[in-house]
Amino acid sequence: MSRRVMNLAHLLTQNARRHGDRAGFIWGDKSWTWREIDSAVSALAAGLAARGVVKGDRILVHSKNCDEMFWSMFAAFRLGAVWVPTNFRLMPDEVAYLASASGAKAFLCHGDFPDHAKAAANPALEFTWRIGEGSFGERAVSDVIAAQAGARIENAAVDYDDPCWFFFTSGTTGRSKAAVLTHGQMAFVVTNHLADLMPGTTETDASLVVAPLSHGAGVHQLVQAARGVPTILLPTEKFDIAEAFRLIEAHRVSNIFTVPTILKMMVEHPAVDKYDHSSLRFVIYAGAPMYREDQKAALNRLGKVLVQYFGLGEVTGNITVMPAILHDTEDGPQARIGTCGFERTGMQVSIQGDDGRELKAFETGEICVIGPAVFAGYYDNPEANAKAFRDGWFRTGDLGHMDEEGFVYITGRASDMYISGGSNIYPREVEEKILTHPAIGEVAVLGVPDPFWGEVGVAVCVAREGADTVSEAELAAFLAPKVPRYKMPKRFFFWEALPKSGYGKIPKRLVRDELEARGQLELISKAGG
Q1: What is the DSSP string of 323-347?
Q2: Alpha-carbon span 165 to 102, nearest angstrom
Q3: Residue 20 neighbours by CB under 8 Å, 6+ apart
Q4: What is the pLDDT of residues 247-266, one digit of tens each?
Q5: How confident is the model at residue 18 (pLDDT cuts 50, 70, 90)?
Q6: What is the pLDDT of residues 456-475, one digit of tens each?
Q7: CB neighbours of 169 closer than 8 A, spacing ≥ 6?
Q8: Per-residue b/e over 309-346, b at no fewer than 16 CB within 10 Å?
Q9: pLDDT band at 52 (very low <50, low <70, confident <90, very high)
Q10: What sign does the CA torsion over 78, 79, 83, 88 have?
Q11: What's the rounded mean pLDDT across residues 100-118?
């Protein structure tokens, strides 16, 4: 039996009714009320419908953060179509792959990416419309909205399991996969985010976007829309920290969603002392655990406003939460150092062995999860679905343990762990120790092949700005009393910066590629056992 649920675009309908004259979207010197947003979304939906887009069709969107990209999400939902956003930093061939893998019928492409529009063309893709300025595409989205001004499109009837969003995973292994998110699932996610991450949020709040709307930030802004909160964009896609703090002060911004590397940059920037950020209530970070030293620095500069959550695109961020009240600058028992928090409301976490058996407290295994936030599976990929689920549990691929009170601790990705001389080594705990050195700002530890030990650890370090230089020998001496000998990295390299993904994470595969490109892997193998 199908279960009829609210179409997510109804959130916009509600805002137009209740908060019609309030600002819902602010970008540079432009501002749109909720009524204007609702009208623009209906006009875009009418244009897409006139061009043959119907319920279930996929709309690929490759765009920098902007007004029309935000409208496209609600326009897709309103029609019962599926929003398929991509990270705008992807290469043309990668977007071409996503176009064919999603079976997209329509492509909305930002004017800065003509090569992507050209590469994505395939027999199934019926038309391309351009977002913003440019000279490619059948029409400009702005022209479509102008031509359909005044059109009223009702929100399509949808069931709980009707897809609304293909959330492409960042593809840490092989090709990106489309996680299918549904209207019913996302209604739960919205409610859960409001309950667990930012309780008490109302239309009097304001939210600043500092990440691509195609992924976690898009989920976060959908949650804001559910409460009539205005979304504020940076004026350009460049992450200008001084401008971010200026906007926080000007709009009395109360919440931000970000990742640890971006938060670290913000906290270390001089603008943190120049502008008033006392309006911030929830600085939510996810995507990776935050190193303890960085956590302390952020708490000291911003106050007790940090909220951490752990989750994947497949569970739309809804696995654990570490609320602001549990973030502590002191290293006592209250601080619960290293945890990513406890289970989200309505979700259940299980630490499982390779055989699917639930492990005891403090035993390391794979973090698995069940609950209404878990996605409907990967689109058109039965093989990936078979690997991702076991006995109904979604397998995250992350390793960790749980304490007796149910707090979860991540030790790393299963793919990050390496085995040296028969011992399992989780890079994260070594990274945490290295970061206690005052001269080190960032580090990535990974295992590389070794003829004697099988694998050995390598630490790639970035110096903290303004810090004295430290030698490989000095860092090794500093670390020696802090980690057992078998966990000690064999080499320490010092780089100007670590490679980051489009979401501000530091993927180990990119670090490995760079080590190879620099010829540093050869140095390790030549160093002998």
Answers
A1: -GGG--SS-SGGG-TTEEEEEPTT-
A2: 11
A3: 33, 34, 35
A4: 999 999 999 999 888 899 99
A5: very high
A6: 999 999 998 888 889 999 99
A7: 176, 177, 179, 312, 313, 314
A8: bbbbbbbbbbbbbbbbebbbeeeeeebbebbbbbbbee
A9: very high
A10: negative
A11: 97
Average pLDDT, the chain: 92
Q: What is the 3-state secondary structure (H, E, C) of 281-295?
A: CEEEECCCCCCHHHH
Which uninterrupted H or E stretch holds 494?
strand 491-495
Helix (H, G, I), strand (E, B) or coil at 370: strand
Cβ partners under 8 Å of residue 386, min gap 6: none
Contact 415, 406 (CB under 8 A): no
Strand pairing partners for 378? 179
Q: Which of 79, 88, 37 is nearest to 225 (CA)?
A: 37
Contacts of 143 (CB under 8 A, 6+ apart): none
Three-state helix/strand/coil letters over 47-95: HHHHCCCCCCCEEEEECCCCHHHHHHHHHHHHHCCEEEEECCCCCHHHH
Residue 301 near residue 307 (C-beta atoms within 8 A): no
List the end-to-end C-alpha distance of the chain, in Å, as a whole number: 63
Both tokens of 205, joined, read 């709040």
| Angle at alpha carbon of residue 161, lines to 202 and 386, rounded to 5° | 115
The larger pLDDT score, comparing residue 524 to residue 400, is at 400
DSSP state of 392: T
Q: Which residue has the tokens 């949808």?
A: 158
Tell me if residue 42 falls in helix, strand or coil.
helix
CA-nearest of 314, 279, 178, 265 to 504 is 265
Q: Which of 315, 325, 221 is nearest to 11 (CA)?
A: 221
Best CA proximity match to 516, nearest among 446, 451, 429: 446
